[in-house]
C-alpha cells in the first residue's frame, strides 16, 4: 500500500512539472492569458522603417509572453534593411523589447552594396536612401580591410594638396586604381602602393604648376617616374565689353 502511494505521488509530481512545459510548447499559456501588449524600441537610428519593424515583430508578439520565440524574432529583425544588429527581449508582464543598431554607411561597394563603418557589407536595396558623396570602393570581399586602410592613408596624403579620394578599387589580380576629386585617374599597380602614392603627391604641385592643362591620368607603375596624360584646361569665359557710359 505504501509503495502504491509513493508511486502515485511521483506520477503527480512529474505531471505538475511536465504539464507547464507541454503547455508552453503548444501555446496553451500564450496570448490569451499572458498577451504581449507593448513594443519598446531602443537605439539611435534614422533609416530603419518603424512600420516594417512593427510588422516583422507582430507575429511573434501574438504568441504571448511565454510562447514567443525570441531567437527567431531577433533573426527576423536582423534581416531588415539598414539593421546591423538587433536584440529582442521580453519584460514581464507584457513588454516585447527590441534594441536596434543601425548600419552607418562609410562607402559604396561595387554596384549594389554599401560598406558600414564597422566594416560590414550590406545590400543597398531599391528603396534605401543612400547618403550623398560617399566614396566608391570595389574589389573582392576579402580585401575590404585593405581597401579601407589604403583609402585612409591616401586621403591624408592628398589633403595637403587640396584633393579628395573619390574612388578606390583593387581588381582580382591585386592591381589598384584611384579616382580624385579633380577627375584624374591614378593607376597605382600591384606593388608599393603607399610609396608610389607618396612620391606622386610630393611631385604633384610641381607637375601641375608647369602645365596650363588639367591632369587626366597618371600611371605610377614606373621605377623612377610617372606616365602622365593631360587634358586641355577649360578657358574662362571672356568678359563682356564695357559699354559707353558705364562706370
TrEMBL record:
Keywords: Cell cycle, Cell division, Cell inner membrane, Cell membrane, Membrane, Transmembrane, Transmembrane helix. GO terms for biological process: cell septum assembly; FtsZ-dependent cytokinesis. It is a single-pass type II membrane protein. GO terms for cellular component: cell division site; plasma membrane. It is found in: Cell inner membrane; Membrane. Residues 34-103 form the POTRA domain. InterPro entries: Cell_div_FtsQ/DivIB_C, FtsQ, FtsQ_C_sf, POTRA, POTRA_FtsQ_type. PANTHER family: CELL DIVISION PROTEIN FTSQ (PTHR35851:SF1). Belongs to the FtsQ/DivIB family. FtsQ subfamily. Essential cell division protein. May link together the upstream cell division proteins, which are predominantly cytoplasmic, with the downstream cell division proteins, which are predominantly periplasmic. May control correct divisome assembly. Part of a complex composed of FtsB, FtsL and FtsQ. This is Cell division protein FtsQ. The gene is ftsQ.
